[in-house]
Amino acid sequence: MNMSGKVETDEIDRKVLAALIRNSRAKLKDIAKNCGVSSVTVLHRIRRLEELGVITGATLFPNLKELGLIAATLGIDVEAGQEEEVLALIEKQTNLVEPALSFGKYDLCALIFADNLSSLESITQLVRKHSGVKRITTNMWVSKPAFNFENIDLQCGKADSHG
Fold it and tell me: Cys-Cys link to 31, which of 19, 53, 105, 129 (CB 3.0-4.6 A)?
């Protein structure tokens, strides 16, 4: 890490990350070939990036329609200091996938799965009734996400020789 707390990466790190972002199950030998290094080097780079917290896991996003589930994003505005309690309620009562404190229109955002619209409505009402919740907005996903990680600029963490 540099003095700003950012992890410094070089071109090989960024190529490894880009390959894993495109396909988290890519073969080491294919990544190595693309990077011009050995598979062992790629493995060491991945382990280093995991240890530094740059790589935090590999995510598989299921086809919800095939599983009979729906996905929704909850945007929740809460009373100050109630964030953790509301997140705990959502986690206990739902198929919570991705909770996050946020900055902007909502204090919390949460990606959840529900069995059907009735279940989603029940979840929304349960959260809305919590004493610390000021407002909740539910956005149901009507299609699978189309991830476009090609737009991520991995250059931002590159090593700077100027100090």
Answer: 19
Domain 64-140 has CATH 3.30.70.920: yes
For the chain, what is the radius of gyration of the CA atoms? Answer: 20
Beta bridge partners of 95: 113
E-assigned strands of the chain?
A: 70-78, 95-101, 108-114, 133-140
Give the strand pairing for 133-140 and 70-78. Answer: antiparallel
Residue with tokens 């009373």: 79
CA gap 53, 56 in Å, rounded: 6
Report the alpha-carbon distance of residue 149 to residue 38 in Å, rounded.
25
Q: Which two tokens stand for residue 156?
A: 């931002």
CATH of domain 11-59: 1.10.10.10
Q: Which helix (H) or strand (E) holds 129?
A: helix 117-129
Q: Kindly report, residue by residue over 113-133, the tens digit of the pLDDT.
A: 898 999 999 989 989 999 889
